[in-house]
Amino acid sequence: MNSVKRKLNKRILLIIDDDKITRMLIKDILEGSGIPILESGCGEHAFELFKKHRGKIGLILLDIRLPDCDGWVLIGTIRQLDQHVPVIAISAILPSELAAKYQLAGFTGYISKPFKVDELQEVIISYFSGLNNR
């Protein structure tokens, strides 16, 4: 397990969601995983965190609806700086309605709210253990 934790520790998870409870839930789900987590409740702060830690972030979970900016706009700004960092949309908007838009915007994947804890944990761990890394 220590070797797995060391491997997972090499990258940071950035959670961008205006709902503090959602951010706390994700952190609770990952407790003990060894994954370092940064979090933000607004787009402007999140983008500053992204720029500061660029190259160290292994995965971004991005809510589509943020109070100060649209998740669609934020993904475009992130993609101007980094085409490869995995970004997963998290939203209550049904993915079947917007699947093509998510892909065109540069999202790597989509997770529906409310989350299924096991599925969310599995997706995140898979990115950090190298199963889905570029």
Give a concise summary.
The chain has 134 residues and is of the alpha/beta class. The chain has one domain: Rossmann fold, CATH 3.40.50. The chain has helices at 2-8, 20-29, 43-52, 71-81, 95-105, 117-128, and strands at residues 12-16, 37-40, 57-63, 87-91, 109-112.
Describe this structure in words.
By secondary structure, the chain is of the alpha/beta class. It has one domain: Response regulator (Rossmann fold). The protein has 6 helices and 5 strands; from the N terminus they run αβαβαβαβαβα. α3 (43-52) packs parallel to α4. The chain is globular and about 35 Å long. The two termini are 23 Å apart. Residues 1-7 have low confidence and may be disordered.
Key features of this structure:
46% helix, Rossmann fold, alpha/beta
List the helices and strands and how they pair.
Layout: H1 2-8, E1 12-16, H2 20-29, E2 37-40, H3 43-52, E3 57-63, H4 71-81, E4 87-91, H5 95-105, E5 109-112, H6 117-128
Parallel strand pairs: 1-2, 1-3, 3-4, 4-5
Sheet of most strands:
5 strands, parallel
What is the CATH homology-level superfamily?
A: Response regulator
Count of distinct strands: 5
The helix/strand order is HEHEHEHEHEH
Structural class: alpha/beta
Number of discrete helical segments: 6
Alpha-carbon Rg, integer: 14 Å
- The CATH class is identified as Alpha Beta
| CATH architecture assignment name | 3-Layer(aba) Sandwich
In helices, the fraction of residues equals 40-55%
User: In the CATH scheme, what's the topology name?
Assistant: Rossmann fold
Overall mean pLDDT: 86
Q: Which spans have pLDDT < 50 for at least 5 consecutive residues?
A: 1-7
User: Per the principal axes of the C-alpha atoms, what is the gross shape?
Assistant: globular
- Summed up, the domain count is 1
Strand content: 15-25%
